[in-house]
Amino acid sequence: MNGNNHDSRGDLNVVFDFCDVLLNWDPKSGTYDLLAGEFGVDAWRDFYDEDAPYGMWHYDGLLDIGLDPQEAAADYRAHHRGEDCERMFDVYYAHREQAFRGMITGMDTLLNDLARRGVPVWGLTNFTQDAVDYATAKYPSLRLLRDVIVSSTERLKKPDHRIYELAAERFGIDPGRSVFIDDKMWNVRGAKESGFRSFVFTNALDARAQLAQFGAFSRR
Question: In which element (H, E) is residue 198 found?
C-alpha cells in the first residue's frame, strides 16, 4: 500500500482508525483460554488491569510508539521477577494473533462500497506494524486501503497533530476534503484541530449515514 503516486487533494477521502473501527481487536478475551489456562484467572485479570503500572496496557502503549517487543518483554519480566506470571508477556506476544476477533460488523462492506464508488480510503492507526501486516493479510477488505500510517513505524501517536499532518502529506490529501473516523473522542478532536472533518465511530450503520452527509455515496 502506497499513496505517494496518487494525488487525492481534489477528492473526498476517508481515513480510518483500525482497532474498534475496522477491526475487533480484543486481546483480553482472545487470550483468555491461553493465559488463564497457563497462569490462572487472577493472573490473567491482573495482566489486563488498566490500572496496573506494568501490565499489558502499559506495554501496549509503548509498543505502539515503537518500543521493540523484546525490550518490552524483558522489562515486563524485570518487574515481575520471581512471580508465577513472569513469562506472561512472552506467551501473550507469541500468540498475539488470538487478539484478532474479525472485522467490525459491516465495515468490510462499507470499505468495499466506498472503493467501488471511487472514494479513496486510507488508514491511520495507533498500532504496531506487524499487527497491521497480519490484519491486512488476514482480512482482504483491508487491502482496499491505499496506504496506512502506523504509529509504531512513525514513532508518533494520535492525537499528536504531527501524525495527522504526516497522513495528509503522505496520502496527498486535503484535510478539509477528508473525513477521519476514530472510536476515541480525543483522537477525533486532534484530527479536527489538524483540519480534518471527523466523527466518533459507534457502528457501521452510523458511519455510513455520516459519510453520506459528506457526499461519500454521491459518486458513481
Answer: strand 197-200
CATH of 13-25+101-213, one of 3.30.70.890, 3.40.50.1000, 3.10.20.600, 3.40.50.720: 3.40.50.1000
* Distance of alpha carbon 124 from alpha carbon 148, whole angstroms: 6
The Cα–Cα gap between 81 and 155 comes to 29
Residue 139, number of CB atoms within 10 A of its CB: 17
The full set of domain ranges for the chain reads: 13-25+101-213, 32-94
Using CB atoms within 10 Å of the CB of residue 202, give its burial: 0 to 12 exposed, 13 to 18 middle, 19+ buried: exposed
* Cβ atoms of 194 and 155 closer than 8 Å: no
Which regions of 116-158 does DSSP assign to beta strands (E)? 121-125, 148-150
| Cα–Cα distance, 181 to 104 (Å, whole number) | 14
Full pLDDT tens readout for the chain, 220 residues = 544 445 454 579 999 999 999 999 999 999 999 999 999 999 999 999 999 999 999 999 999 999 999 999 999 999 999 999 999 999 999 999 999 999 999 999 999 999 999 999 999 999 999 999 999 999 999 999 999 999 999 999 999 999 999 999 999 999 999 999 999 999 999 999 999 999 999 999 999 999 999 999 975 5
Burial of 33 (0-12, 13-18, 19+ CB in 10 A): exposed
Q: Give the integer Cα–Cα distance in Å for 165 and 178.
A: 12
